[in-house]
UniProtKB/TrEMBL annotation:
Pfam family for this entry, one: ABC2_membrane_3
Transmembrane segments: 21-42, 176-199, 220-248, 254-277, 289-309, 343-363
Main location: membrane
UniProt name for this protein: ABC-2 type transporter transmembrane domain-containing protein
Length: 372
């Protein structure tokens, strides 16, 4: 097939995609909806955690500490007369934990001693419990230091630490989960768009018509891949616009490298979609398989939620087959650290290799199907 014929084939694919309402839904509406859902619904920090408070001996000092907790967005406090009542509130699900201010709280402060508080949290959600306990500990030490300073005393902890925060000094969770959400969303959208483009041709007999017209299989695959890439890249631009406009997530490395690296991620995901469609007979089967091999593996094995180095040694090699794993590492680097050449290079190479690993078997399976 000549270059003009290839151009006409690509134009045909782009025109069909433009006229297909389903492609608009998948590539524009779905990314926007998922970005809003994950951006606002996925919070990796404690926010307005309900806590039961037991003040055994109310005083100015205890009220000062409780006021400091109330003035944050991290906790909402509910008073209870004694510890058994507060514990029942945790068991009933009305509160997440208990802050117990003992009767000698004010006296120990007046004597210059370090008072102690009892903190009890519901550890059925271990991660949330650790985060809440950490916030309470920080709030407690900050209040003690301020209170003693206001009363002419100096807070001297037994151990002092100097902490240096690299790459994300404000500890903003948005700088982590917004680029992670973009990768997860494009994992779903990029695969769906490509597999539906190809599965529809197989299901409706369009592939045999294209082959009968003289088009070679690799040219058909190239046209499908470019069409899926351009379609899903529009969805990527939607996600990027929402990340910058609504969530104020600006990459340290600039937007141009983010868009360039994301192009490699989309090519790998589109190739995986073509591989799935080449091994199935209809769109329904392709959709079911895509849900099993895209979002869940990307969510679990990409390092977004669970650190890869903490996984069992037998599981870690499988993460190299997940395109989102390389995309996650690359985008998080660009958002938080900027241009780190070795990180971007190796993750980019990983995405290119995955594109070939997915695309070549897809073409071989499609060729075998077209001859049957």
């Amino acid at each position: 097939m000549s270059a003009p014929a290839m151009k006409r084939l690509l134009g045909k694919e782009l025109t069909e995609a433009w006229r297909d309402p389903g492609m608009w839904l998948i590539n524009l509406v779905l990314p926007a909806a998922l970005m809003l859902l994950m951006g606002y619904g996925m919070q990796m920090f404690a926010h307005r955690v309900p806590l039961a408070v037991v003040d055994a001996n109310p005083s100015g000092a205890t009220q000062s500490f409780l006021s400091a907790l109330r003035n944050t967005d991290y906790f909402t406090l509910r008073g209870y007369p004694d510890f058994p009542a507060a514990r029942r509130a945790v068991q009933d699900g009305r509160t997440f934990g208990v802050v117990w201010l003992r009767g000698d709280f004010a006296r120990r402060l007046q004597l210059g001693q370090h008072p102690e508080i009892g903190v009890f949290v519901n550890a059925t959600d271990a991660n949330h419990a650790r985060i809440s306990e950490g916030y309470l500990t920080l709030a407690w030490h900050a209040w003690v230091e301020q209170y003693l300073g206001d009363h002419g005393q100096k807070f001297q902890p037994p151990v002092e630490s100097a902490t240096l925060l690299w790459y994300n000094p404000t500890l903003s969770s948005q700088r982590y989960y917004i680029p992670g959400a973009v990768v997860l969303i494009m994992t779903v959208v990029g695969t769906l768009s490509a597999l539906l483009l190809m599965a529809r041709e197989w299901e409706h007999g369009g592939m045999k018509l294209l082959r009968a017209s003289g088009a070679k299989l690799r040219q058909v695959f190239l046209a499908k891949l470019l069409t899926a890439f351009l379609s899903t890249y529009a969805g990527l631009l939607v996600c990027v616009a929402l990340a910058a406009w609504l969530f104020h997530a600006a990459p340290v490395g600039g937007w141009l490298p983010v868009l360039g690296f994301s192009a490699l991620l989309l090519l790998a995901l589109n190739a995986m979609g073509l591989l799935i469609s080449a091994g199935t007979r209809n769109q329904e089967s392709a959709l079911q398989i895509s849900l099993l091999v895209t979002f869940l593996p990307a969510f679990i094995l990409s390092g977004f939620v669970f650190a890869i180095y903490s996984m069992p040694a037998a599981i870690r090699p499988f993460t190299d087959l997940i395109a989102a794993r390389f995309g996650m590492h690359g985008l998080l680097t660009l958002f938080d650290a900027g241009h780190i050449g070795t990180v971007l290079w190796w993750n980019g190479v990983g995405l290119v290799l995955l594109t070939l690993v997915f695309l070549l078997p897809a073409m071989r399976n499609a060729l075998r199907r077209s001859r049957s």
